[in-house]
Design brief:
heterodimer, A: 250 residues, two-stranded antiparallel ribbon, 10 helices, globular, B: alpha/beta, Rossmann fold, seven-stranded mixed beta sheet, 12 helices, 15 strands
Chain lengths: 250, 369
């Protein structure tokens, strides 16, 4: 079991090594989530929902009850579970396409209603599983399969600011933050606060994490990290946008 | 808080939507997820008024996709969850229903049909037969009950919950705007007082124990990596659907033996058919009546037997041949002497019209449009 020592206890060992591409950020994010699950000891109460897209590859990642859903529909499935059994802790895991495009109405309305679930959204600026198409989060000038000459903001707008949008509409009690794979300590701090917010039943919890996609970005290790730390950081500010009590205090 | 119905038997005069809300309560439903659309709205209205007194829950979602997927979530958490919809809402429901088909999640959705295509009317139609029976990207693994009156709306809503939770397939109760909004008398009852057992609901996720140590974690899939994996997963489901189909298939039939002609219809239109064959009998004309109660699975064998007795058919529906297509499929390669139709998408059909049509057909005319 010595191999196991580096893995969070909540990981499902039989499905490791995991199926994400080399250099992908999902593994880092799921490691942090696993550590938080362990530290807060919530494995028994956890229901993990996987959206379609690369997030689907996490369907057997944890020793936790997990449901594959449809593209964009993980939020309502988790809302239904939580409403039916508020004792459970529900985490909806999705990409930027699932959260900001096809499932945007679910994200916005879950935020409006302050649903006591957590949405963990991985932002890698493209649709990874389908082969690297433009996403709502694609950067201006970024080349993808459906913006082969670079995203033109005149045509298709600017990168979606998810946490900013969610923070603008949530009632008091919500937790909204953006973290990055380039800062694991901060990511873990935010992840823990997001999960704790649901444990406390205060309100909606939303964490976006900036991630990497060298396969579809067609970048080397160095270029990948530069894109994450420089290009993406220029458009997406990390930090906490809303924390419980914020508005009441104001 | 009241846990049981306030009556064992209760004769009432109510709308179809109210009957459905009470039937869901009688069937042991725990939570409703819904999105407003006419003509099903009053199901939500009655449910939200009944819910607090009986410890039940309700959530108004952002759309029908969400209503369907939250219903699935509620079921996975071990509750009897349901929804209701109509028209364009039924279109959106196809997505969650296919997930329920693939993952064998019991689910009850009441469809109060309205006009189509598109927004059309909020009033009445029978144009959601195709959608209800075969609307998804799959094989139509759903049970569809088509009700003809308020008593049936009540009875089959209760039955829908039992069939869904017994066989783990989604179940639609197909009503329409006339049934939804019209008042009619029926007897509402507590299923227990009639010795009916309700199928229990069981949680799929969040069961007691620590996943990975005291019990295996539940990993639910609907996506597969390779063709053979999907095939292996589909075929047992098809076998179970067929096996269930034999047990749940239902039809209603009257006077087909020795009849000159059989009127085939479903839902409220079959009330006109029943009235028509009575009036025809008074005129000395013997017409029969056949009605699928389950649109899916379709009562093929029963229809084949009826048609063997009387091979002259008149198919009548408030749609342009959605029922007729199912009838033709059921009768493939069977000898049929005549096949007349009355298709009235979005409008009702009266007994008088049917009497007139039958007389015309007897005189060598045709009703086909």
């Amino acid at each position: 079991m010595s191999d196991r020592l580096a893995m969070p206890k909540s990981w499902h060992v039989e499905s490791k090594p995991h199926k994400f591409c080399p250099g992908c950020g999902h593994g880092l994010i799921l490691k942090v989530l696993g550590e938080v699950i362990d530290e807060l000891d919530i494995q028994e109460k956890l229901v993990f929902g996987c959206d379609i897209g690369c997030s689907l590859l996490a369907w057997d990642f944890f020793d936790a009850d997990t449901v594959q859903t449809h593209h964009g529909r993980t939020t309502p499935v988790m809302v239904g579970i939580k409403r039916a059994n508020p004792e459970l802790l529900c985490i909806a895991y999705m990409g930027d396409g699932g959260g900001y495009a096809i499932g945007a109405q679910h994200l916005v309305n879950a935020a409006f209603r302050n649903e006591r679930i957590m949405v963990l959204l991985v932002n890698n600026t493209n649709y990874g599983m389908t082969g690297g198409q433009m996403a709502p989060t694609t950067l201006p000038g970024q080349k993808t399969e459906t913006s082969p000459f670079g995203r033109d903001p005149e045509e298709t707008g600017y990168p979606a600011q998810g946490p900013e949008m969610v923070a603008a509409v949530v009632p008091p009690g919500a937790y909204v933050a953006r973290a990055t794979c380039a800062n694991m300590k901060q990511m873990k701090r935010f992840m823990k606060k997001a999960v704790e917010n649901q444990v406390a039943g205060r309100g909606f919890s939303f964490l976006e994490v900036l991630s990497t996609c060298p396969t579809n970005w067609r970048t080397s290790a160095r270029q990948t990290w530069e894109f994450l730390e420089k290009e993406m950081a220029g458009y997406f500010k990390t930090g906490e946008f809303t924390t419980p009590g914020d508005r009441r205090e104001k | 808080m009241q846990r049981t119905l306030p009556f064992s038997e209760n004769r009432v005069f109510v709308t179809g939507n109210e009957a459905v809300a009470w039937a869901a309560l009688a069937a042991g439903a725990d939570i409703m997820f819904g999105y407003p659309i006419t003509p099903q709205n009053e199901i939500m209205h009655y449910w939200t008024r009944l819910a607090p007194a009986y410890g039940k829950k309700f959530l108004q979602t952002e759309d029908e996709l969400s209503a369907g997927f939250t219903t699935i979530g509620g079921v996975l958490a071990g509750r009897k969850a349901f929804s209701a919809t109509a028209g364009p809402g039924t279109v959106l429901f196809q997505e969650p229903v296919t997930m329920a088909e693939m993952m064998r999640i019991p689910m009850v959705v009441i469809i109060q049909q309205r006009g189509g295509p598109s927004t059309a009317t909020v009033i009445y139609s029978q144009q959601e037969v195709n959608l209800a029976a075969f609307g998804g990207n799959g094989e139509g693994w759903r049970v569809v009950y088509s009700t003809a009156n308020h008593q049936e709306l009540y009875d089959y809503t209760i039955k829908a919950f039992n069939v869904a939770w017994t066989y783990r397939f989604p179940v639609f109760v197909l009503g329409d705007g006339y049934q939804a909004k019209m008042r009619e008398s029926l007897v509402m009852y507590d299923p227990a007082s009639r010795g009916m057992e309700l199928a229990p609901a069981e949680a799929v996720v969040g069961k007691p124990g620590r996943p990975g140590s005291s019990r295996p974690a539940v990993h639910l899939r609907n996506a597969f990596s390779v063709e053979e994996e999907l095939y292996e997963s589909i075929m047992p489901g098809e076998e179970e659907f067929r096996s269930m189909a034999r047990r749940v298939v239902e039809h209603d039939e009257e006077g087909t033996r020795g009849a000159e002609l059989v009127i085939i219809s479903h839902g409220v239109v079959s009330r006109a058919a029943v009235a028509a064959i009575k009036r025809l009998k008074e005129k000395g004309i013997k017409a029969g009546y056949f009605r699928p109660v389950t649109i899916r699975p379709f009562p093929e064998e029963a229809l084949q037997r009826a048609v063997a007795l009387c091979p002259r058919l008149l198919v009548v529906e408030s749609a342009l041949g959605q029922l007729a297509r199912l009838v033709k499929e059921a009768l493939f390669n069977r000898p049929v002497e005549s096949f007349d139709t009355i298709f009235r998408p979005g409008v009702g059909i009266t007994a008088e019209e049917l009497v007139e049509a039958v007389i015309k057909i007897r005189q060598g005319g045709t009703t086909c449009v």
